[in-house]
């Protein structure tokens, strides 16, 4: 194969299927004769074109075919390990497995020239990073990490608090103000577009799990909770999703324009999911 530099880096991906799509497109630019059939043959599947399409549609990839893909793409030792872990993360059957492989992905990421991307990955790996960022808006941080850590519910360790603050300073989402206190650089931030996949869903799952704990153990601290189960048309669903998007925009606007000093940190979660086929 021609220059590896033109092939996308596996470290830039959070979804192995998206990598396979981009890999095929890059190979075709380098080698116009390259096709899905040729890729299938490299995976020792000479009589089928549908395997890769099935994988891209969600079919699980066995360890045997993971190794064949690794050999076909030509990953080095470290890239191969990252790819194996990424496949396991994307195909994990429960939250515990996803958590395990998610942490491994962070450790295995070897993209030194994209430090910011890696730091963003770390930022969304812990629920308390975003909570601390919001807490710094209402808490004058004077270097007392033990006090800062205790302000969270549930509390974290002083070491975790220090690592989180250092990370946010590196990312530029927390900075010193005129009086020397560390404060959020913006009142509201959103995940980058390339994070809207499994890694972001893993982050959201942590907050859903945290909501379960708070509702079960500290119901008196929850100012509002509600569930709605509805039957709706496809057109109605589109309207509902648009309405939800507008609500999120209104929340960000309200927070940004809030004229009174912030008093507490809250999480607002909205999940729309099917309960029928």
Structural features, described:
About 2% of the residues have low confidence. Among the domains are: 88 residues, Orthogonal Bundle (434 Repressor (Amino-terminal Domain)); 60 residues. A two-stranded antiparallel sheet has the order 1-2. The chain contains twelve helices and two strands. Helix 4 crosses helix 5, helix 5 runs antiparallel to helix 6 and helix 7 crosses helix 10. The chain is mostly helical and 277 residues long. It starts with 15 loop residues before the first helix and ends in a 20-residue tail after the last helix. The radius of gyration is 22 Å and the shape is globular. Strand 1 and strand 2 form a beta hairpin.
Task: Give the arrangement of secondary structure elements.
Layout lengths: L15 H15 L5 H7 L7 H7 L6 H11 L3 H14 L4 H14 L6 H9 L3 H9 L9 H6 L7 H14 L2 E3 L5 E3 L13 H20 L16 H24 L20
Antiparallel strand pairs: 1-2
Helix pairs in contact: 4-5, 5-6, 7-10, 8-10
Low-confidence segments: 112-116
Please count the beta strands (DSSP E, at least 2 residues each): 2
Name the strands of the widest sheet in spatial order. Answer: 1-2
Number of helices: 12
What's the helical proportion of residues? 40-55%
Classified by CATH, the class of the domain at 4-91 is Mainly Alpha
Order of helical and strand elements? HHHHHHHHHHEEHH
Q: How many strands, which pairing sense, and closed or not: the largest β-sheet?
A: 2 strands, antiparallel
Structural class: mainly alpha
CATH topology of the domain at 4-91: 434 Repressor (Amino-terminal Domain)
